Amino acid sequence: MTRRPFAPSRRQRLAIAALLLGCSASSFALNTATIVASTLSPDCLEYRVTGICYWLYCTWTGCTVRTSVKVRHYIPDAVVSSYSNTGENPWVGVRAMSLPNPTAKAGGDGTTNEDHENNLAKFKNADVIGHPGGHVFSQFASASGYTCEGAGTAFMPYLLSTLDTLAWRYNIPEALYPEALIPGRREIGTRTAMNLWGNVYPRGGFLHQVDDHKAAAVVAQRAGDIVTRRNQIHVYQPLLASSRDGYWPAGALMETDAATGKWQELTPTLSSSCAVFPHGNAKVQARQGDYAWALWRPYSCCQRRGQVFLGSVDFL
């Protein structure tokens, strides 16, 4: 009698991935398997039925109106790394994409070399790379119902700061933008609430922030801000999808607004939930100034059930 090879069910595969997620939480090295397992997060997914779509379906005998459910959920489009030492992306598997080059060699913080003074400035490289967990995420999300398609392609580099030298290291031309010169515009947090993490503009690698974790988060937000917009004066490719009948993709990322995107910390600690910056969660400082987050973005869609899209109605 021959035995069949063991083939785990979908539920068993998800359980195995969840176990890997829990076991990897204490690991310092960020690898692809850990990132893939991190997609099993109901908090980040936030699946909801939001309305009804109407379609006109026609055959040679006549036309009828059909309906389908409209859903909304978040998708992990990209992994955004924010790290001090050029060429040392904490996601080990993609380091070769952003090695030092003649225009982007060193990294780290500025200092006065005086022990009693804080560093004058911090510098972070940033990479935005397509999230590798698409297959596992699709299996996980489909358990809730119909699912939408994200904009990200696995392992696709959308922004590598080592190739964006003029804008990233010299703040040209964004140092002269009103958002960079006028206090209170495009900031992460507020001065009145005493929780100001930093300014979005100029969207480069330098900022003044004594907390290294907060500095890395601000730089990650800057990188996400760039790739979710078109025609920016940076070397990058947009991480955006085009809308179509029955499909409403995520738009421009905005700081502090979860309706445009939220962040899941991957390293130095692995989180099973998502949040926006600023937040009050525990902030562990990375030993070598290297951090990474998964950027989850909201999408709405409904199943196509006819030739002509008539519109949709959202529940209150």
TrEMBL record:
InterPro entries (UniProt xref): PFL_4710, TraU
Keyword entries, A-Z: Signal
**What highest taxon heads this organism's lineage?**
Bacteria
The signal peptide, as residue positions, is 1-29
User: Under which name does UniProt file this protein?
Assistant: TIGR03756 family integrating conjugative element protein
Q: Which organism is it from?
A: Cupriavidus cauae
